[in-house]
C-alpha cells in the first residue's frame, strides 16, 4: 500500500463536544465463546481408550466478558495476540465459525446478537447497527471496480434495492457515505490502486458507513500502516465517535489507543482484566492490573521490558488467575480463585448491578487479588527473584 501524502487527506480540525453518555449502543453481558475441538488422543490412552471416545477439548477464547460501549466514545480493547479480542468482535457480528459455542448476551438495538438468526444479522445488524472498519483496506476493496461502483453496490445490498433502482438514489447515498468518511467526492471514480494509503483507508471506512451504523467496530485498523497513517486513521475514528457513534477499536497498538481512546479494556487469556479511563491508564495513576502494567512497561517508549513467560493455552487454563504464573505479585489466593472484575467503590463484583440487567464497569475496574495502587494495608507478596517492586509501586 502506498503511503504518500495527499493534500485531500487533511481532516477537519473542528471537534464537537461529545454527547452526554447515555444508553449503551452495545452491551456485552457475561459473553463467553468457546471452540469445540476434535478429541485428542491423550498420553496413556494408547491401547486403552480408542481415539474418538475421549471427551472433546474446548478452547475458551472469551470468558465472561461484560462491557458497554457508549455513544460518543472510543473504547480500545487491548491485549496480547491470541487473547480473544477478534473472537469477541466476531461474536458481536455473528461471524464465528461453526465450532463456536456462545453463552451470555451481546445486545445492540434491542437485538441479542448471540442468538439472532443469520437473516436478522445480515439485514439489521451488519452495516446497519454495526459497521465493520476492515483491517486492511487494500484487501477489502475490489481492485477492478471504482470506489463509486463499490459504494453504490454496498448501498444497493444494504437497502435491499432492486437492480433497476434509479441511479440517482444510489449515487446520492454513496456520496453521502463518502462524505461521512471525508473521502473526497472528486476521487470517487478512482480505482483502489490509484489512491494513497490514507484515501484507501477512507474508502474502506466509507463502505462501513453506508448504513450509517451507530456502532463502528475496527479490528486492528492500523496494522501494517506507517506512523502518520496510523495517526490519521485513528483520528478519523475519533471524529466519527465525536459525532455520536460508539467506536470499538481492537488493537495491539497502545500508542494509537493512547492517542484516541476514552476508555481502555485490557484482555488476558479470554477475560477482561481491567477497564480504565484512558487518561488515568496512560498518564494518571496508571494501570491497576499487573498484566496491564506489564503491557505498558513493554513499550519501547517506556521501560521496554517484556513480560516474562507466555500466556496459558486457552484449552488448558489454570484454575485461578490466568496471569498468576507470570505475575511478580501472585500469592496462593491467586492460584486458587479467579478474581472478579471489581471497582474500588463497589462492594460486590462490578458486573453485578440492580434489576435483571447487570451493570458493566464504567472504569476503574480490575480483576486482580492484589491490584496495583491498592492501600498499603493489603498483604504484600514476596517478589520472586529480583526486586521488581519499584516498577509497580
Ligand atoms: N475457529 C477456531 N477454532 C479454535 N480456536 C480458535 C478459532 N478461532 C480462534 N481461535 C482461538 O481463539 C483464541 C483467540 O483468538 P483471537 O483471534 O480472538 O485473538 P486476538 O486477541 O484477536 O489475537 P491477535 O491480536 O493476534 O489478532 C486463540 O487462541 C485462537 O487460536
Ligand atoms: Ni485479532
Q: What does it look like?
A:
The structure is a single chain. The chain has 393 residues and is of the alpha/beta class. The chain has a domain of 177 residues: 3-Layer(aba) Sandwich (Rossmann fold). 27% of the residues lie in helices and 18% in strands. The strands form two sheets. It has a seven-stranded mixed β-sheet, with helices on both faces. The chain has a four-stranded antiparallel β-sheet with strand order 2-1-4-5. Helix 4 crosses helix 5. The longest helix has 16 residues. It starts with 25 loop residues before the first strand and ends with a helix. 42% of the residues are buried. Bound molecules: adenosine-5'-triphosphate and nickel (II) ion. Adenosine-5'-triphosphate (ATP) binds next to strand 2 and helix 1.
In short:
The chain is α/β, with parallel strands linked by helices and 393 residues long. The chain has helices spanning 85-93, 118-125, 137-140, 147-158, 167-180, 197-208, 227-242, 254-260, 278-283, 290-297, 332-336, 389-392, and strands spanning 26-37, 57-69, 74-78, 100-108, 111-112, 130-133, 215-219, 246-251, 263-268, 271-277, 365-366. The structure holds adenosine-5'-triphosphate and nickel (II) ion.
Amino acid at each position: 500500500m502506498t503511503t504518500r501524502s495527499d493534500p485531500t487527506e487533511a481532516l477537519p480540525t473542528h471537534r464537537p463536544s461529545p454527547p452526554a453518555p447515555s444508553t449503551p449502543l452495545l452491551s456485552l453481558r457475561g459473553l463467553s465463546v468457546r471452540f469445540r475441538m476434535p478429541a485428542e488422543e491423550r498420553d496413556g490412552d494408547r491401547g486403552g481408550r480408542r481415539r474418538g471416545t475421549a471427551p472433546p477439548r474446548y478452547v475458551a477464547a472469551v470468558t465472561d466478558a461484560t462491557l458497554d460501549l457508549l455513544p460518543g466514545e472510543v473504547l480500545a480493547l487491548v491485549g496480547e495476540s491470541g487473547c480473544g479480542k477478534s473472537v469477541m468482535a466476531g461474536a458481536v457480528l455473528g461471524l464465528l465459525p461453526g465450532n463456536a459455542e456462545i453463552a451470555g448476551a451481546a445486545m445492540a438495538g434491542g437485538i441479542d446478537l448471540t442468538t439472532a438468526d443469520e437473516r436478522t444479522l445480515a439485514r439489521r445488524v451488519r452495516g446497519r447497527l454495526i459497521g465493520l472498519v476492515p483491517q486492511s483496506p487494500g484487501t477489502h476493496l475490489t481492485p477492478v471496480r471504482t470506489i463509486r461502483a463499490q459504494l453504490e453496490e454496498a448501498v444497493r445490498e444494504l437497502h435491499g434495492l432492486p437492480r433497476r433502482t434509479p441511479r440517482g438514489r444510489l449515487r446520492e447515498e454513496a456520496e453521502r457515505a463518502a462524505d461521512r468518511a471525508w473521502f473526497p467526492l472528486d476521487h470517487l471514480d478512482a480505482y483502489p490502486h490509484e489512491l494513497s494509503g490514507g484515501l484507501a483507508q477512507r474508502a474502506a471506512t466509507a463502505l462501513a458507513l453506508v448504513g450509517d451504523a451507530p456502532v463502528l467496530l475496527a479490528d486492528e485498523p492500523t496494522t501494517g500502516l506507517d506512523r502518520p497513517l496510523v495517526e490519521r486513521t485513528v483520528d478519523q475514528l475519533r471524529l466519527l465517535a465525536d459525532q455520536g457513534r460508539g467506536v470499538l477499536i481492537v488493537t495491539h497498538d497502545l500508542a494509537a489507543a493512547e492517542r484516541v481512546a476514552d476508555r481502555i479494556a485490557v484482555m488476558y487469556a479470554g477475560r477482561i482484566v481491567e477497564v480504565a479511563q484512558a487518561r488515568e491508564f496512560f498518564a494518571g495513576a496508571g494501570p491497576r492490573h499487573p498484566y496491564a502494567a506489564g503491557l505498558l512497561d513493554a513499550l519501547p517508549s517506556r521501560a521496554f521490558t517484556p513480560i516474562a513467560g507466555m500466556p496459558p493455552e486457552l484449552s488448558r487454563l489454570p484454575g485461578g488467575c490466568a496471569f498468576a504464573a507470570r505475575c511478580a505479585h501472585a500469592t496462593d489466593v491467586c492460584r486458587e480463585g479467579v478474581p472478579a472484575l471489581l471497582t474500588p467503590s463497589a462492594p460486590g463484583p462490578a458486573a453485578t448491578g440492580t434489576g435483571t440487567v447487570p451493570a458493566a464497569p464504567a472504569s476503574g475496574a480490575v480483576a486482580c487479588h492484589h491490584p496495583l495502587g491498592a492501600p498499603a494495608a493489603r498483604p504484600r507478596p514476596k517478589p520472586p527473584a529480583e526486586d521488581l517492586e519499584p516498577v509497580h509501586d
